[in-house]
Amino acid sequence: MVEYLALQSRPVPLAQIAAAFSASKATVYRHLVTLQRHGFVRQDPDTGRYEAGVKLMVLGEALRARFDVLSAARAELMQLRDRTGHAVTICALIDDELVVLELVQGRTLIEFATRPGTRLDFHASAHGKVWLAFGPASLAERVLAGPLKSWTPNTLSNPASLRAEIAKVKDRGWATAPDEVITGVNTLAAPLFDHRGALAGSLAIVGATQFIPPNPEDAQVMEVTGAAGRISRSLGWRS
Question: Global pTM?
Answer without folding.
Answer: 0.72
